[in-house]
Structure formats: structure tokens, C-alpha cells
Design goal:
Elements: H1 2-39, H2 44-85, H3 100-135, E1 139-143, E2 149-152, H4 154-160, H5 164-167, H6 172-175, E3 187-193, E4 196-209, E5 212-221, H7 223-264, H8 272-301, E6 309-312, H9 313-323, E7 329-332, E8 338-341, H10 343-362, E9 368-375, E10 378-385, H11 411-421, E11 425-430, E12 437-444
Parallel strand pairs: 7-9
Antiparallel strand pairs: 1-2, 1-5, 3-4, 4-5, 6-8, 9-10, 10-12, 11-12
Amino acid sequence: MASESSGQGSASHHERRVLAFALLAGLPGILLALYLLWSHDYSDRVRWTLAPILVMTWLGFAFAARQRVVRPLRTLASILAGLREGDYSSRARGADNRDVLGTVISEINALGDTLQEQRVGALEATALLRRVMGEIDVAVFAFDDADTLRLVNRAGERLLGQPGERVYGLRADQLGLAECLAGESPRVMEAAFPGAFGRWEIRRGTFRQHSRPHQLLVVTDLSRALREEERLAWQRLVRVLSHEINNSLAPIKSLAGSLHNLVERTPSPPDRDQDLRTGLGVIENRAEALSRFMAAYARLARLPPPRPAPVSVDDWVRRVASLESRLKVNVVSGPPLTIQADSDQLDQMLINLVKNAGDAVLEAGGSVSIDWAKSGGTVLIRVLDDGPGLAGTTNLFVPFFTTKPNGSGIGLALSRQIAEAHGGTLALVNRAEMRGCEAQIKLPV
């Protein structure tokens, strides 16, 4: 109210000043006219008739000038007050860019249009944000600098087991979220909330609202995703194991039935002993193959954690290249680098990749080479061959999938597992500049 009264007082003062300037502007003329009227030989009737007319005309023009100046300013003040209060619908008339006042009116009208567009855009963006926050299955909370809850979405309400109207204004410790606002971010933790229990990923961020710092807390339920991944992993495992075991048990069962009939047959055929030895040999081979398969699976499933130690990349690459006895592996020297890794596991990974490259080029008589280079904080080791290349990459790293007659299907899966255990990656791609395949190992330096 004080500010409004002050504004009204300033407006009245400005109006009085405009009126005073208008009166002063016409005062010399009216004084000169009255002087001439009384200094010449006019009758009193003429003098007292013209004098009021002159004075009234002078005052009328002065008040009209004040109104001409003040009225547009009042209109503009009302429009600006409406903009300040959030009313963007009012516009001023008389916008004409041929004079200064018209230019001001045009600019204020354009300002109103811009603010109205921005307000509509902000409302639409806010509605979209609220819709997205309401639909996502991630709990989102916003706390002010006093750790008081200011915002929560529907997933957050389900996590707290209460509607938002009951939890707004409560502190984080009252909601059981104080631990989430402390510690590292992001991190994974097990916690029990009123609405759920399980493993959660905790992420935090900061933002400012009304010049005050706020914390944004995002709580993601990992239990469902982990259960789904576990279910899919078990399905893949059962499918692979069933396929391999059935491939071995089916001929064993068939041969066992044939041998049983052979033993029960009377009189015994003359080649019974030979047939028995042949059938038992097949059963033995299939049982041995099944045993090798289970041993290979156990090897893949029980990969021990790496024991890091300094490893020279040059020594490592040349040592593995010398182990390939079927063909000469060309080593293209790169920069001298030492990484922290498990030397035995790295040997196993690179041996598998070099062996695969050798298998690809042996029939056509191609070559295999290894090079490496540093890129940022990683070292890229490439195993290159000029064989037929990759027909497809979909099942390359699926355990026990192989296109080789005597392959086990665990080499690439095990190699990628070793690379990822060291914080790196393994990828197989076709070479861009020529025919062949390229195995790319990236390891942190």
C-alpha cells in the first residue's frame, strides 16, 4: 500500500508539473494580450468581454496539454501493472511508429505479446513435465535448503506410502530419506521404505528456485530390473544346457537301447563283440564331450577376479604372438605403455583372439597382425586378419555359440568377460579398408 500511495503521489506531482509548464508556456502570451487590451483605447465593455475569453482559452489549452501528456502515460502504467500481475491480455491503442509515443506503445504491446507467448510455453512445458514425472516409474523428490520436501511425483508417493498432500513440508529425516541425501552419488543401496523394500540406485542433483538452493533426489528401483535380467539369464542358461545335454543324451540313449537288444538277442550274432565295442566307444566319446562342455561352462562361470600388477603392453603382445605356432603373427610396435592388469587373464584373452584370427586365415593363407595405440586414458589393442570377415555379429558373444566344427563357443564370451573385468571393452568388427576382421580391445591405462 505504501508503494502504491507513493506511486500515486509521484503521478500527481508529475501531473502538476506538466500543468505548471503548460501554464508558464502560455503566461507570456496572455499577459501581453491583456497589456495590449488595456493599453489601447478600448471600451470597458470590450476589455471585460475579451479578457475572460483569453484567460479561459489559456487555461483550457493548459489543461488539455496536461491531459494529452498524462492520459497515455496512465494507460501505459495500467498495462505495465497488468503485465507485472500476470495479465498479458491488455493492449494500448494508438500505436503509431511515426512519433515517439507511438513507438513506446508499439514496444509495450510487443512486450505483452512476447510475455504471453512465453507464459503459454512455460505452462505447456510445466504440464508436460508434470505428466512425465507422473508417468515415469522413478521416485523423484525435491528438497529445499532446510531439507524440507517441496516436490514429489506419484512414484515417490508410492515409495513413501502416503499422498503428496500429507508429506509436503516434512523434513527428510521424518520421511526416512535423510540417508539418501548424504553419501556418494550415484550409488546403489539396500533400503526399506514404507512402500517398498529392495535395492535402489540413488542419484542427486542441485538446482535453484526463488534464489534458494534445492536438492533433486532420484530413487530408482533396481530389484525389478535385476529380477528380470536374472530370469532371462536363467532362461538362456537352461536353453543352452538343454540343447547341449540333449545332443549328447539322445545318441547315448539310442545306442544303449540298441546294445541292450544286441545283448538279449539269441543266438548271438557273430559280430556282436565288435558292435558292442563300437557302440560303447561312441557312448564314451559323447560322455567325454559332455564332460568337456560342463568343464568349459564351469570355467566361464567361475572366472576369478583379476589380480592387477604392472604389465608391459609390448611384452604382453609379443609373448602371446610367439605362442601361435601355425603361422607368424606380425607385431606392429606402438608406444611404450604399462597397464595395471592380471597378466594371466590378459594372455588368455589375447590367445583366444589370435587363435580365432589364425583359424580365419589358415585356409586362404592370409596373415595376422597386432598393433596398439594410446587414445586418451585408454590403450587400443587390435588383432587384424585378412580372412573372410564376419557374416554376422549377433551371436558372437553368446556363450557356447560357435560356427566351428570343434569349437566350444566360450572363447569370445570369456575374452569379453576378462576385458570387462579390467574395466575395458572387447568388440569384433569387419575391417573398413580391406577384407577381414578386426578385434578391438580397449583397456584403461
